[in-house]
Write a structure and sequence with these properties.
5 helices, mainly alpha, about 100 residues, globular
């Protein structure tokens, strides 16, 4: 079992860019899940609409994996979402 100080030490050792990437991924996943649920779709329905295996969508939504950009675009297109990766000033946006 890890102590709180051990966890803090390991977390603080993560480079800033990795922390930002994880935060971006978490925000992206949250928006995709919310949109899917707002549409009343199951993961299986999204899988059928995208041609992506339901198990891959499940792993993505559980934050076990991050999809490639082409997979992300396929998912967001099916959900009627727009993805905007703005690289100016290191800002990341998903709409």
């Amino acid at each position: 079992m890890y102590e709180r100080d051990d966890v803090k030490k390991h977390v603080s050792a993560i480079p800033t860019y990795e922390v930002e990437a994880l935060q971006f991924a978490a925000k992206m996943i949250g928006k995709i899940i919310k949109r899917r649920q707002d549409l009343g779709w199951t993961q299986s329905q999204l899988a059928k609409k995208t041609g992506i295996k339901q198990s891959n969508i499940s792993r993505f939504e559980a934050a076990e994996t991050i999809p490639r950009v082409d997979t992300l675009l396929t998912i967001t297109f099916a959900l009627g979402m727009k993805v905007d990766l703005g690289f100016e000033d290191q800002k990341y946006t998903i709409i």
